[in-house]
Each structure stands twice: as C-alpha cells, then as structure tokens.
Design brief:
The structure is a single chain. The protein is mainly beta. The protein is built from three helices and 17 strands. Strands 3, 4, 6, 7, 9, 10, 12, 15, 16 and 17 form a ten-stranded mixed sheet that branches. The two termini are 33 Å apart.
C-alpha cells in the first residue's frame, strides 16, 4: 500500500486551532486494537468500546473546542492494518461557526489494508450561515479492503430560522484502490438565497447527505432492498449501483429522517457484505 504521510500541524497561530489525530489500528490475538495514537488539541479519541466483541473496535473522536471557527486547521490520519475492523464516529454533531473572514479546513486521509474494514460514520455537521469551510478526504483501499462511510450536513440553524444565505462550503472526497479511482465526489455550495432555493442547489432543503460502501461488487437485489426502505418518505433520495459498491443520496428537511434511512441502508450492507447485524454506537 502506498503511504501518503500527513505532517503534524504546529500551532503557528495561537488564535486558531491546529489539531491533529493519527491512529493505527491492527489485528492482534485479542482482536482489533488501537496500536498507535498521536493527538494534538483540540482532537482526541476516547477509550475504545467493543459492543460486538473483540473483532470490531468502536472508536469515538472528540473535538474538545466544541466547534470549528475560521482559520482552524484539522488533520486526521487513520491506518487499518490487514484484517482489522473498526467503526469510527464522533461524540457529537460538528459545528462550523460563522467565519471571521478566514476559511476553516479539515483534511482526512484513510488507509485500509487487505481484508480490513473501516466504517466511517461521524455525526452530522451543522454549517452556520457565513461559515467558510473546506474539507478534503482521501481513502486508499488495498485489494480486498472495505470502506463504509457517510456525510451528513445541515446548512443553517433552521430551528432559529437561519438558512445558508451567505458563506462557502466545499467537500472533496476521493476513494482509490491502487491506481483506480472508485469514487470521486466534489461538492461546492456558495451561500446565497438563489442557490439555497434552486432545484440545482439545495432546492429549499437544508439537509443533505451521502452514504457509500466501496470495495465490493453488489448485486441489483441489494440496491432494490435499500430503495424499498425509502418508499413513502417525504424527502428526496436516490440509490446508485457503482462498479465496486453503492451510493445513497439524500436531500430534505430532517436530519433524523436522513440518519434513519442511512442506518437502514447500513444495516442491509452490513448483513449482506460484512455478515454482521447493525450495531449502533453508544454515543448516538
């Protein structure tokens, strides 16, 4: 596997966080364990949980500052060694606060070795109006590796009547297997009333999300089973079969509705691909 190293950020500006979290997880005689941890505030990881037994490590990432402000730089680097299996989530919803004119950024690099599996399921992100944010993720899968991930985003604090009429949000995700791209997803939402209401933008829907499984060829029956779990729901959704996986998209008004549907899709994927029942993290 090609190693793409991320340097640990240094606190060059005391007014902004330069956070880092590096994790290496491996398969031992006792099951999947965190073998190495490197942290720099405000990021840290809780003691792992094993609600499914020793084979699957449940890890919870903490952002101790409570939210991201303009100028913050966060970097995460996760490596799963052969046959390791981890489920990584976050302790709470992420908050991207109104910017002071500077852009906040987060970079995530994930490496998954042969026969290893990472389930990357962070809780939702709330982008406040006037937030300026960039996030970049790269996932490198070895042959036989599996990655399951989602991204849940709410634009504006709608409970307060706030939309995303100003700001800028970009998300760039790439998943590769060797020199072959499995999924490249670039999203850009410039905050404006026109984009918020346009059918080619948010269509008046403040909540959007993606759920993806990559590393396995899926049969049409699995796609149909996930589509069937959506029938009758009020939001907008779609399921796409990819050459080496599947993709679910959501656009609507309810984070709860989105999460419930994604959990249903995740349960089907877990049952048919991983041969495990769904196991909700205790922090949800």
């Amino acid at each position: 596997m090609t190693i793409h190293c991320l340097s640990v950020p240094t606190a060059t500006d005391a007014a902004h966080w330069q956070g880092y979290l590096g994790l290496i997880l491996g398969r031992t005689a006792e099951g999947t364990r965190i073998l190495q941890t490197q942290v720099q505030a405000p990021l840290k990881v809780q003691r792992p949980f094993y609600p499914e037994g020793p084979d699957v490590c449940h890890g919870v990432i903490l952002h101790t500052a409570g939210g991201v402000v303009g100028g913050d730089r966060l970097a995460l680097n996760l490596e799963l060694q052969p046959q390791a299996h981890a489920l990584i989530t976050t302790a709470a919803a992420g908050k991207i606060y109104r910017s002071n004119g500077l852009t906040a950024a987060q970079t995530v690099h994930i490496q998954v070795a042969p026969q290893a599996c990472l389930e990357w399921l962070p809780q939702e992100t709330i982008a406040f109006e006037h937030a300026l944010y960039r996030q970049q993720m790269r996932v490198d899968l070895a042959p036989g590796a599996t990655w399951i991930g989602w991204e849940l985003t709410r634009f504006g604090r709608t409970a307060r009547g706030e939309s995303f009429g100003a700001g800028d949000w970009r998300s760039h995700t790439e998943v590769w297997q060797g020199d072959r791209p499995l999924w490249i997803d670039r999203q850009w939402l410039p905050g404006s009333a026109d984009i918020f209401s346009s059918p080619h933008g948010l269509g008046g829907c403040p909540v959007v999300g993606s759920f993806v499984m990559l590393g396995h060829t899926v049969e049409p029956d699995l796609i149909q089973a996930i589509r069937a779990t959506w029938e009758g729901a009020p939001g907008q959704a779609g399921v796409t079969r990819l050459p080496r996986g599947l993709l679910c998209r959501y656009r609507g008004h309810s984070t709860t509705e989105m999460r419930q549907w994604f959990v249903s899709a995740w349960a089907i994927v877990r049952s048919q691909i991983l041969h495990r029942p769904v196991c909700l993290p205790r922090v949800w």
